[in-house]
C-alpha cells in the first residue's frame, strides 16, 4: 500500500491542527489518480488545494470535491491536536501512531515541506521498522492523491474547528467508512 501524508493548521496558534494519512492499495493507485484528475476536470479547477478555495469560491468547490472523492476507493487515519503545537514533536507522535501498517510500499509527502519535516518522517519510519528508502517527496500538483490528502486534512481541521459547512462533509466521509481511525490529543506549548 501507498501512504500519502498531509497536515493542516500546524502554523496556527489557536484551534486545531491535523495530520492525515491516506492509505491506498497498490492496484488502485493509478486508477485513483486518474479519477481524482477527472473530478478536477469536471469541476473545472486546476489541481485542488484546500486553502485555494477558501476565499475565492467558499465551500462550493470544496463540497463538490469532497462529495465526488467520497465515492472513490481509499481510507484514511488522522490525528487532531489543539494548537499551539511544536510541529516536530507532533509529527513524530502522529507518524508513530498512524504508521502501523506492515505492507507499506511507499510513503509520499508534499515536496514543499521544510527539511526538518522530511528528517522527522525518516526518523519515524526507522523507528517503525520501515525503510527510509520507501519515502518519496512529491509535488502535489503532480500527484493527485496528495491533493486528496490535502483535502482530507483541511476538512478534518475545519470540522474540529467548528467551521460552518464542514460538519456535513465530515459526516459524509465518516458515513462512507473512509475514516479507519482517529485520535484527538491536547496541544503543546511552543519553546
Question: What does the secondary structure layout of this molecule look like, with pairings?
Answer:
Blueprint: E1 2-8, E2 16-24, H1 29-42, H2 59-69, E3 75-82, H3 87-98, E4 106-110, H4 115-127, E5 135-138, H5 144-160, H6 166-175, E6 179-185
Parallel strand pairs: 1-4, 3-6, 4-5
Antiparallel strand pairs: 1-2, 2-3
Helix pairs in contact: 3-4, 5-6
Describe the protein in words.
The protein is α/β, with parallel strands linked by helices. Helix content is 40%, strand content 21%. The chain has six helices and six strands, in the order E-E-H-H-E-H-E-H-E-H-H-E. It has helices at 29-42, 59-69, 87-98, 115-127, 144-160, 166-175, and strands at 2-8, 16-24, 75-82, 106-110, 135-138, 179-185. Strands 5-4-1-2-3-6 form a six-stranded mixed sheet, with helices on both faces. Helix 4 (115-127) links the parallel strand 4 and strand 5. Helix 3 runs parallel beside helix 4 and helix 5 (144-160) crosses helix 6. It is globular, with a radius of gyration of 16 Å. The model has no long low-confidence stretch (mean pLDDT 80).
Amino acid at each position: 500500500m501507498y501512504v500519502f501524508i498531509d497536515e493542516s493548521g500546524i502554523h496556527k496558534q489557536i484551534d486545531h491542527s491535523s495530520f492525515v494519512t491516506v492509505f491506498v492499495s497498490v492496484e488502485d493507485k493509478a486508477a485513483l489518480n486518474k479519477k481524482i484528475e477527472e473530478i478536477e476536470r469536471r469541476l473545472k479547477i486546476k489541481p485542488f488545494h484546500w486553502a485555494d478555495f477558501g476565499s475565492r469560491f467558499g465551500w462550493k468547490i470544496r463540497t463538490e470535491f469532497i462529495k465526488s472523492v467520497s465515492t472513490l476507493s481509499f481510507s484514511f487515519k488522522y490525528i487532531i491536536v489543539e494548537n499551539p503545537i511544536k510541529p516536530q514533536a507532533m509529527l513524530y507522535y502522529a507518524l508513530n501512531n498512524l504508521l502501523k501498517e506492515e505492507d507499506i510500499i511507499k510513503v509520499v509527502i508534499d515536496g514543499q515541506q521544510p527539511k526538518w519535516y522530511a528528517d522527522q518522517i525518516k526518523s519515524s519510519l526507522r523507528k517503525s521498522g520501515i525503510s527510509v528508502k520507501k519515502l518519496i517527496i512529491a509535488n502535489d500538483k503532480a500527484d493527485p492523491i496528495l491533493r486528496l490528502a490535502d483535502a482530507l486534512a483541511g476538512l478534518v481541521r475545519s470540522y474540529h474547528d467548528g467551521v460552518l459547512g464542514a460538519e456535513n462533509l465530515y459526516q459524509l466521509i465518516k458515513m462512507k467508512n473512509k475514516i479507519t481511525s482517529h485520535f484527538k490529543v491536547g496541544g503543546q506549548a511552543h519553546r
